[in-house]
Design brief:
single chain; 344 residues; alpha/beta; 8-stranded parallel β-barrel; globular; binds ligand G3I
Length: 344
């Protein structure tokens, strides 16, 4: 079989995955796999605020630059993730943001000035704001009591008000007229009341931003899917179409699949169930008009889900919803993605 990147490209799609500079440097097998299978990469950590500006005014672009050099060598596009987010914040950032509106505005602009100029000729698509929508009641990780409204209560919101999102997108567009500006979020894929409510909240935000001519080009749907959640293709297709109807592109930015705990059934059976879900999801995303799909990692051996205590399962035959297994063999999920790209 052709690599996923070529299967996707042949049909007008793009397949990519998240990687870290460390793994690209230390795991030659993984680096070779990414070089073969992915057409686009996204830094799992190196382009986040904490990585780039660990202390105010001290920028550390070396890990990101190492990843960008690798990408240049292997002719891979790179998308940026993420300029404004409430996680991966260096210790100094929330303190500075709490010092008032003009201080917060200055911090955002100084970060954008440096990062967007530094990466200008190598990253042409950024998650400008990541995960701004508050999780509705009934979500896995509901917001703390008192979080009112559609937006998550973050240091950015507290510093600049709900307009922080528009401020960020305008600041990015002012610095680069042709950057693809993306708003990225999660928990909008399932057929469930919380996901339905989060879709409504996201669409309300997008309609408001569009009505105010806020510069925005695309929406990233993370797609950290969960096998214990129902999935209804028709509902998801309609959602993607609703976003497209606003004149926005849609990317699937962080696809992986979390299984129930403890896993039920033997590995091949679980792999088959996950592959069915992935095929249904990717086919629906493409039917709705998405043209780019990235997985959050590429092999189960190095999935963030292994480190995330909320979901960490033991090593061995444990699934983590990526296209390649621990031995870097193609899983049924790989075939599911290939078939979805081929429209089969
Ligand atoms: O903290 C160290 C830091 O001191 C060191 O300089 C750096 C060097 O690599 O590593 C840091 O370690 C950890 C980092 O991953 C290494 O990659 C951080 O402690 C840890 O918090 C960080 O976790 C990442 C997490 O986002 C928070 O940034 C996960 O790898 C990454 O998979 C996860 O990805 C998020 C997306 O960005 C947004 N969507 C959800 C997704 C999963 O949570």
């Amino acid at each position: 079989d052709l690599p996923l990147a070529e299967i996707a490209q042949g049909r007008g799609f793009t397949y990519g995955c998240a990687v870290t500079a460390r793994l690209l440097a230390e795991e030659p097998e993984l680096a070779a796999l990414v070089a073969r299978e992915a057409g686009l990469i996204v830094p799992e950590y190196e382009a986040k605020f904490a990585a780039l500006q660990p202390e105010e005014g001290r920028f550390d672009t070396e890990p990101l630059d190492a990843l960008l050099r690798w990408a240049q060598h292997f002719r891979k596009s790179v998308r940026g993730h993420a300029l404004v987010w409430h996680n991966a914040m260096p210790d100094w950032l929330p303190i500075a943001l709490a010092e008032g509106r003009s201080r917060a505005q200055g911090v955002m602009e100084a970060h954008f000035d440096r990062v967007l100029s530094h990466t200008r000729d190598r990253i042409r698509d950024w998650d400008v704001v990541n995960e701004p929508i508050a999780n509705p009641p009934g979500s896995d990780v509901p917001e703390p009591a008192g979080n009112s409204g559609d937006l998550r209560d973050t240091p950015w919101l507290r510093a600049l008000g709900p307009d922080y999102i528009a401020i960020a997108f305008r600041a990015a567009r002012q610095r680069d007229a042709t950057l693809r500006l993306t708003l990225n979020d999660y928990g909008v894929e399932a057929d469930s009341p919380p996901a339905e409510e989060k879709r409504r909240r996201l669409l309300r935000l997008l309609r408001d931003l569009r009505a105010r001519n806020v510069p925005l080009d695309a929406v990233g749907i993370q797609a950290h899917l969960q096998m214990r959640e129902a999935f209804n293709p028709a509902i998801f297709i309609a959602f993607v179409r609703d976003i497209r109807a606003l004149g926005l592109q849609v990317l699937i930015t962080e696809l992986d699949v979390r299984e129930v705990r403890p896993p039920v059934g033997d590995f091949p059976a679980r792999d088959a169930a996950v592959a069915l879900r992935v095929h249904a999801f990717a086919s629906a995303a493409f039917e709705g008009g998405a043209r780019t799909l990235l997985t959050w990692g590429i092999s189960d051996r190095w999935s963030w889900l292994f480190n995330d205590q909320a979901v960490a399962l033991g090593p061995g035959d444990v699934h983590r919803g990526l296209p390649f297994d621990w031995e870097l063999n193609r899983k049924q999920m790989w075939r599911a993605l290939a078939r979805a790209f081929l429209g089969q």
